[in-house]
Amino acid sequence: MEESFLEFQNPIRDAISRIRFAPQSNNLLISSWDCSLRLYDVDGCVLRLEAPTEAALLDCCFQNESIAFSAGSDCYIRRYDLHSGIQDTIGNHDDLAICVEFCDETCQVVSAGWDNKIMLWDMRMKKAPGCVKILGAEVESMSLSIFNLLVSAGPSVNTYDLRMSERPVQEEQLSMDVQIKCLRSIPKSKGFAVGSIDGRVTLDISYTSNSNDNGYTFRCHPKSKKGRDHLVAVNDIVFNPIICSAFVTCDGEGYVSSWDAQSRRRLFELPRYPNSVVSLSYNHKGQLLAVASSYTYQERNEKEDPPQIFVHVMDDNNRLLSSGTSRNITKNQKAD
């Protein structure tokens, strides 16, 4: 891909909450606080869908190339037909719905809300959710890897097996003394990574059954220019789907860094973005990295500039190609 600057005819009018590449294509799903779900064809530089709702959208996910879901500030979980634009609600929480995932193996939508509940919706059946799990603390983040659902609530990370378990199959109390900001499963591993509001990342990772404990914690930016710790929230973590030890972090000051979990070293750092970086996504081949730069209403020095999305081309070793192969998707793209 050559360098492109794409302008949207219909601007993203508020903060971006989540971006996700599709399972088998380079279509990018975007949820935002402006109450719209958008679908972009990155290859064709075309806005495929803009679906307005009546609430801010706090998360989104794909079921497949044709169906997507969102979690809204009005407590509802919505389903979208990405071809027709038709949407309906599949259920609701008693408070803000903040996380949504789809498990292809069990055909379930999994959602979490500020009502301290995890709800499972079986898409093969038209009835109430098959399971409701009530937690002792608000869910901060959630991640799904095959059958394993990981949920961060308070200082704990709980793992559920969606096939059979009403209770966590594993409960891990983290040593972090600050709030967890994001939680992500590690592909091809039983591990996970969490990012905190003070700039730390903790990995709990094991690539083989014979591996020793490979858990460790580090700061993404150990020192600021003034020699003090970089106490800025890690907003998102994403793992390369092909190179399982490679992952990328982003924070509230616009920094994005790539790391190797096994060697425990930084691979590269992108030039600082114009605003907080709120969400990251690799495409299914690990060749494209999408970066959403947007204000979050949470950092003091944020600018309320229009949200932007950058898509960078990676090589087979998870390194950036030349700067001329980065794509900047801004708020004014016109749909053909």
Topology:
Elements: E1 4-9, E2 16-21, E3 27-32, E4 36-41, E5 46-52, E6 57-62, E7 67-72, E8 76-81, E9 87-92, E10 97-103, E11 108-113, E12 117-122, E13 131-134, E14 139-145, E15 148-153, E16 156-161, E17 170-173, E18 180-185, E19 192-196, E20 200-204, E21 216-219, E22 234-239, E23 246-251, E24 256-260, E25 265-269, E26 277-282, E27 288-293, E28 308-313, E29 326-333
Parallel strand pairs: 1-29
Antiparallel strand pairs: 2-3, 3-4, 4-5, 6-7, 7-8, 8-9, 10-11, 11-12, 12-13, 14-15, 15-16, 16-17, 18-19, 19-20, 20-21, 22-23, 23-24, 24-25, 26-27, 27-28, 28-29
What does this structure look like?
With 336 residues, the chain is mostly beta strands. The chain has strands at 4-9, 16-21, 27-32, 36-41, 46-52, 57-62, 67-72, 76-81, 87-92, 97-103, 108-113, 117-122, 131-134, 139-145, 148-153, 156-161, 170-173, 180-185, 192-196, 200-204, 216-219, 234-239, 246-251, 256-260, 265-269, 277-282, 288-293, 308-313, 326-333. The strands form seven sheets. A five-stranded mixed beta sheet has the order 1-29-28-27-26, with no helix packed on it. Strands 2-3-4-5 form a four-stranded antiparallel beta sheet, with no helix packed on it. Mean pLDDT is 85; it is low at 1-6 and 322-336.
